[in-house]
Amino acid sequence: MTCSFEKTNSSDFLIQYKEILEISWSNHSIDKHFDNKKSVNIEMSLDSKLIGILIGHYLYQSSDLDEFEILHIAILPNFRNRGFALNLMEELEKLLNINKKSLKIFLEVSSSNKFAIKLYEKLGYKAYNERKNYYRSKSINASHTQDAILFAKSLDAIR
User: Fold this and answer.
1) May I ask the CATH architecture of the domain 3-155?
2) N or C, which terminus of the chain has less Cβ within 10 Å?
3) What are phi and psi of 149, to 5 degrees?
4) pLDDT tens, per residue, the chain with 159 residues
5) CA 73 to chain CA mean position, Å
6) Quick count: other Cβ atoms within 10 Å of Cβ 33?
7) Which DSSP category does 84 fall into?
Protein backbone atom coordinates (compact mmCIF):
# COMPACT_ATOMS: atom_id res chain seq x y z
CA MET A 1 0.00 0.00 0.00
CA THR A 2 1.31 3.39 -1.02
CA CYS A 3 0.02 6.49 0.73
CA SER A 4 0.48 9.87 -0.95
CA PHE A 5 -0.50 13.48 -0.39
CA GLU A 6 -1.18 16.25 -2.85
CA LYS A 7 -2.05 19.89 -2.40
CA THR A 8 -5.22 20.51 -4.32
CA ASN A 9 -7.49 23.28 -5.49
CA SER A 10 -10.05 20.83 -6.85
CA SER A 11 -13.31 20.65 -4.94
CA ASP A 12 -14.51 17.54 -6.83
CA PHE A 13 -13.69 14.92 -4.17
CA LEU A 14 -15.27 16.94 -1.37
CA ILE A 15 -18.44 17.65 -3.35
CA GLN A 16 -18.75 14.02 -4.46
CA TYR A 17 -18.41 12.61 -0.93
CA LYS A 18 -19.65 15.48 1.25
CA GLU A 19 -22.59 13.54 2.73
CA ILE A 20 -20.48 10.49 3.57
CA LEU A 21 -17.79 12.79 5.01
CA GLU A 22 -20.43 14.71 6.99
CA ILE A 23 -19.62 18.07 5.38
CA SER A 24 -22.63 20.38 5.60
CA TRP A 25 -21.37 23.09 3.23
CA SER A 26 -23.24 23.85 0.02
CA ASN A 27 -21.47 23.07 -3.27
CA HIS A 28 -21.17 26.83 -3.85
CA SER A 29 -19.44 27.31 -0.47
CA ILE A 30 -17.06 24.44 -1.20
CA ASP A 31 -16.15 25.89 -4.62
CA LYS A 32 -15.71 29.35 -3.08
CA HIS A 33 -13.32 27.97 -0.44
CA PHE A 34 -11.22 26.13 -3.01
CA ASP A 35 -10.98 29.30 -5.14
CA ASN A 36 -9.66 31.31 -2.18
CA LYS A 37 -5.93 32.05 -2.52
CA LYS A 38 -5.48 31.65 1.26
CA SER A 39 -6.87 28.11 1.31
CA VAL A 40 -4.62 25.08 1.71
CA ASN A 41 -6.20 21.73 0.92
CA ILE A 42 -4.51 18.34 0.96
CA GLU A 43 -5.91 15.21 -0.64
CA MET A 44 -4.77 11.84 0.66
CA SER A 45 -4.60 8.82 -1.62
CA LEU A 46 -3.98 5.17 -0.90
CA ASP A 47 -2.83 3.16 -3.91
CA SER A 48 -3.99 6.04 -6.17
CA LYS A 49 -7.52 6.11 -4.66
CA LEU A 50 -8.61 9.28 -2.86
CA ILE A 51 -9.53 8.39 0.71
CA GLY A 52 -9.44 11.68 2.58
CA ILE A 53 -8.98 15.41 2.58
CA LEU A 54 -7.91 18.18 4.90
CA ILE A 55 -9.19 21.68 4.17
CA GLY A 56 -8.14 24.88 5.82
CA HIS A 57 -7.05 28.45 5.29
CA TYR A 58 -4.66 31.08 6.54
CA LEU A 59 -6.25 33.46 9.03
CA TYR A 60 -3.22 35.76 9.22
CA GLN A 61 0.18 35.95 7.57
CA SER A 62 3.13 38.22 8.32
CA SER A 63 6.88 38.11 7.84
CA ASP A 64 7.45 36.13 11.05
CA LEU A 65 4.11 34.55 11.98
CA ASP A 66 1.39 32.58 10.20
CA GLU A 67 -1.96 31.60 11.69
CA PHE A 68 -3.87 28.76 10.07
CA GLU A 69 -7.30 27.25 10.71
CA ILE A 70 -8.18 23.65 9.93
CA LEU A 71 -11.80 23.62 8.77
CA HIS A 72 -12.33 19.91 8.11
CA ILE A 73 -10.42 16.66 8.21
CA ALA A 74 -12.35 13.93 6.50
CA ILE A 75 -11.45 10.29 5.86
CA LEU A 76 -13.83 7.95 4.00
CA PRO A 77 -15.56 5.64 6.54
CA ASN A 78 -13.88 2.42 5.31
CA PHE A 79 -10.46 3.93 6.04
CA ARG A 80 -11.09 5.45 9.48
CA ASN A 81 -9.31 4.40 12.69
CA ARG A 82 -6.22 3.28 10.78
CA GLY A 83 -3.95 6.28 11.39
CA PHE A 84 -4.69 8.13 8.14
CA ALA A 85 -5.95 11.30 9.85
CA LEU A 86 -2.71 11.38 11.86
CA ASN A 87 -0.72 11.13 8.63
CA LEU A 88 -2.79 13.90 7.07
CA MET A 89 -2.25 16.21 10.06
CA GLU A 90 1.50 15.55 10.06
CA GLU A 91 1.66 16.28 6.34
CA LEU A 92 -0.13 19.60 6.89
CA GLU A 93 2.30 20.63 9.62
CA LYS A 94 5.28 19.80 7.37
CA LEU A 95 3.76 21.80 4.54
CA LEU A 96 2.92 24.82 6.68
CA ASN A 97 6.25 24.82 8.51
CA ILE A 98 8.27 24.98 5.28
CA ASN A 99 8.52 28.80 5.54
CA LYS A 100 10.41 28.56 8.86
CA LYS A 101 8.13 31.09 10.52
CA SER A 102 6.37 30.76 13.83
CA LEU A 103 3.07 29.08 13.13
CA LYS A 104 -0.13 28.77 15.11
CA ILE A 105 -2.75 26.26 14.00
CA PHE A 106 -6.36 26.41 15.20
CA LEU A 107 -9.24 23.95 14.93
CA GLU A 108 -12.50 23.07 16.64
CA VAL A 109 -14.14 19.73 17.28
CA SER A 110 -17.39 18.46 18.74
CA SER A 111 -17.00 17.44 22.36
CA SER A 112 -18.54 14.07 21.45
CA ASN A 113 -15.84 13.27 18.87
CA LYS A 114 -13.54 11.41 21.27
CA PHE A 115 -11.38 9.89 18.51
CA ALA A 116 -10.56 13.32 17.06
CA ILE A 117 -9.89 14.83 20.49
CA LYS A 118 -7.47 12.00 21.28
CA LEU A 119 -5.73 12.54 17.92
CA TYR A 120 -5.30 16.28 18.43
CA GLU A 121 -3.98 15.82 21.95
CA LYS A 122 -1.54 13.16 20.69
CA LEU A 123 -0.24 15.70 18.15
CA GLY A 124 0.29 18.34 20.85
CA TYR A 125 -2.79 20.48 20.31
CA LYS A 126 -4.11 22.11 23.49
CA ALA A 127 -7.74 22.87 24.27
CA TYR A 128 -8.06 26.58 25.05
CA ASN A 129 -11.79 27.29 25.01
CA GLU A 130 -15.23 25.73 24.71
CA ARG A 131 -18.37 26.88 22.91
CA LYS A 132 -21.41 25.61 24.77
CA ASN A 133 -24.31 24.28 22.66
CA TYR A 134 -22.46 25.20 19.47
CA TYR A 135 -23.47 22.32 17.22
CA ARG A 136 -27.19 21.85 16.66
CA SER A 137 -28.89 18.61 15.73
CA LYS A 138 -29.67 18.22 12.02
CA SER A 139 -33.35 17.89 12.85
CA ILE A 140 -35.15 21.24 12.95
CA ASN A 141 -37.31 20.24 15.91
CA ALA A 142 -34.57 18.56 17.93
CA SER A 143 -33.29 20.28 21.02
CA HIS A 144 -30.04 18.31 21.11
CA THR A 145 -26.84 20.34 20.93
CA GLN A 146 -23.16 19.61 21.39
CA ASP A 147 -20.33 21.72 22.66
CA ALA A 148 -17.35 22.66 20.49
CA ILE A 149 -13.84 22.44 21.91
CA LEU A 150 -11.30 24.87 20.47
CA PHE A 151 -7.73 23.63 20.06
CA ALA A 152 -4.49 25.36 19.10
CA LYS A 153 -0.89 24.35 18.51
CA SER A 154 2.15 26.56 18.12
CA LEU A 155 5.14 25.56 16.03
CA ASP A 156 8.11 27.80 16.64
CA ALA A 157 10.38 28.52 13.72
CA ILE A 158 13.97 27.36 13.88
CA ARG A 159 16.02 30.54 13.88
Assistant:
1) 3-Layer(aba) Sandwich (3.40)
2) N
3) -105, 130
4) 678 999 999 999 999 999 998 888 999 999 999 999 999 999 999 998 999 999 999 999 888 889 999 999 999 999 999 999 999 999 999 988 877 778 899 999 999 999 999 999 999 999 999 999 888 766 555 567 889 999 999 987 544
5) 4
6) 20
7) H
